[in-house]
Amino acid sequence: MAEYIGYLAAILGTIGWLPQVYKTWRSRETKSLSLPTNLLIFITVSLWFIYGLLTMSWPIIMANVFAIILVGSIVIAKLIYK
Amino acid sequence: MAEYIGYLAAILGTIGWLPQVYKTWRSRETKSLSLPTNLLIFITVSLWFIYGLLTMSWPIIMANVFAIILVGSIVIAKLIYK
Q: Which fold is adopted by the domain B2-80?
């Protein structure tokens, strides 16, 4: 039971970033986005990726590869469209 | 080693939301924030909280109580300051 909730949380926590990525790149509007928060979340998902590698957990590795790409693209948009 | 990286990620992934909360409530500006993303992240941290309860993991419970409050307050701000 707990395991399935964990998987669901991992999947939602990754695809959850898609609407923000879409909105940000489409509108080129980043005024109300916090750069420190997006940078810290980017570092967070990078750490989870390393954690996944160290524990050889493929679900954690896969979820965080996607999260790195998604959150990374928001950080890049924030830096480009100030 | 992996354990410490996991703890660091859990802490960063929680306090990382603070700058966004501060910026959003101070500026009352939410135009570039995605409501679906913030709702999905809110559901995600709520699921991690339930996961923490089911596995009786205090670090996961504590981290996600804070995350629920922080992300929840961003969702509320987005709904109020459209």
A: Monooxygenase (1.20.1280)
